[in-house]
Amino acid sequence: MINHTQNQYSPFRSFLKKFLKQRVAVISLGVVFFIILFGILGPYFAPYDPGRPVTEQYAAKGIDIENVTSSRVGLTGLLSDGTTVEQLPRLFFESENQRVAAARISSEGMMVSAYRQGTTTISIKAGEIGTVVKADVSSTEEEAPFVSYILIDPIAAPVNVRDQFQLEPKVFISDGTILETREDIDRFIEQYKDEDKKDDGFGKSAAEVETGLQFASSDETIVSVNENGLVEVKGEGEAFIKVSIDNVSTIHPISTAPVLEPILTAIIPDDTIIHLTDIYKHQTPSSLHWFGTDHQNRDILSRIIVGTKQTLLIGFLSVAIGAFVGTILGLLAGYYGRWVDSLLTRFTDILLAFPGILLAIAVIALLGAGLINIIVAVAVFTIPIFIRIVRASTLSLKEKTYVEAAKSIGVKDHIIIMRHIFPGTLSVMMVYLTMRVGTAILIGAALSFLGLGGDITAPEWGAMLSSAKDNSRNLFHPTFFPGLAIVITVLSFNLLGDGLRDALDPKLKE
């Protein structure tokens, strides 16, 4: 007995083989699956409540706000004998703009706390010694480099009266550059002293340098110094030379006798630019918030995950309604022809004469804004497409022999349509269903972006883009990540539709 089961043709097996050969379509199917999974289980995946500011949720998650908004900066003291110390005398901190950030003493040296977005310079002073650092709080502006601190190599032995020597200060710039010659220092000061002199209402720019390198003696009867840093010892005793550029300064002690106790000559910070986070809005992407936060300080990742459900709801429901109505009308137009076909075809032509987004806006204008009305608007935009493709398939299928045979034996029209013609249109409908979901999501997001959706505070991707557009002109993440979610979703559905079309094409050989 011959077994013919292995040679039997299976349409599903043939379709599966064709589909699995298309790697892009298979990957797109996997992406679509995960998107749908997020849509169903989104609230369980979201790390934060998408409707509340994250600062209200930090305590419940055991996050100390001070650790997020503050940064400890180590300060090292350089003594006159070349050694360093960690324990510094009483320091004085002055922030140029205390609305942005302020500093206070800490066990490590200095604690800088952020209050709002922006930049400010912080002066660290101990007597005649001054060092400058910058606090950058979630700012996207590029600041010019600035002088942070100055060092001078210590003198190894006591000096004698009438000795002369040249001071060679080293100027440390915030970008890591070290200026060791007077020519380099003067060139840097000339380059930046006139830059960005416009007052922003909170103080001068960090790059603005008002004076050049200056030298001053604490006691001219013991030590004198000229404008080029040439020192002359005039008498017995001890004095110091102060070298400064605006608020940045160091001192250089000079003594004709051995110095028993070295003194502090400079303050060296671990970081010249301290990057901080403004936790009250527009937090940049970080380990705490992967996609950052929006203008109301809500977690963008959580809103995208939870908003997947509403976005997919618009896509699936609108396409389902449009496909259902369009399929019925397309079957009727193709099967009955004559005045029914003429009437429905003219109706389809009228709807297709309008661009999709304008047709959807017209429907919203009639029905009003809201999630349900968006679904209806996108469904109306979808109906004529399905009328046209189903009608074309029906015109071809009703001429088949098996349909003619069913008519000849008296089978009723609705049975012929549902049993013999409708199944033949399914393959084409599946392809367009998949591809129209992506288009529907795009149209729905566009309507929400234009403010024609429902609740503008809801975590819907189009509404998120609209809010970000109005509240984050200089930030990329509030618009980038919702936009990326729309692109990936629409692209995945379109690529999946292309794969289904190729797999269901009977002309395409395995």
User: Could you tell me how far the N terminus lies from the C terminus, measured between alpha carbons in angstroms?
Assistant: 30 Å
Largest sheet: 5 strands, antiparallel
Order of helices and strands: HHHEEEEEEEEEEEHEEEEEEEHHHHHHHH
CATH architectural type of the largest domain? Sandwich
Mean pLDDT: 83
In helices, the fraction of residues equals 40-55%
User: Could you say which structural class the secondary elements and strand pairing correspond to?
Assistant: alpha+beta
**DSSP strand count:** 18
Outline the low-pLDDT stretches: 196-209
Name the assembly state.
single chain
Q: Shape, please? A: rod-shaped
How many helices in DSSP terms? 12
Q: What is the third-level CATH name, the topology of the largest domain?
A: Immunoglobulin-like
Number of domains: 2
By CATH reckoning, the class of the largest domain would read Mainly Beta
Radius of gyration: 37 Å
